[in-house]
Design goal:
By secondary structure, the chain is of the alpha/beta class. The protein is about 25% helix and about 25% strand.
Amino acid sequence: MARRTPDRNVNQFNTAKETYHATRSNRSCRGKTVDYRRTIGEVVYDAQVEVLKAPKDDRFQVIKEHPARDFIFDPSYLGIQRSNDCVFIQVTLNAGRTVDQKRAFYKAIADGLHERLSLRREDVFISLVEVSKENWSFGNGEAQYAK
């Protein structure tokens, strides 16, 4: 097992202006520049708005770097060869997207990171965590999406 720290899992996007569209992403990386990490955030946000139809400006992100010793992944799980540049992206979002929407979202991120950062598509690991609408509070101690 290789240990890696990608620009993926420690970047959080909370997209939550509309009940259906709420999303939050985490991303982690290792040894990358501020601009590189910022670009990852932009690519994920753009895909959230374009593919998942998240509202514009509904962007909340946390991006963290981790030392290699704290980022562990299998470099060939499912026959996909990952490098030390592997990026983990985790998005928390309201439940309800179709499998086709999710596939399009994964592709938009992998293609966008490849185009803008020359990151190999094999090095883009994405997971979605779906939650119900009442699990969000965007401030003021309120559950804005709860009915």
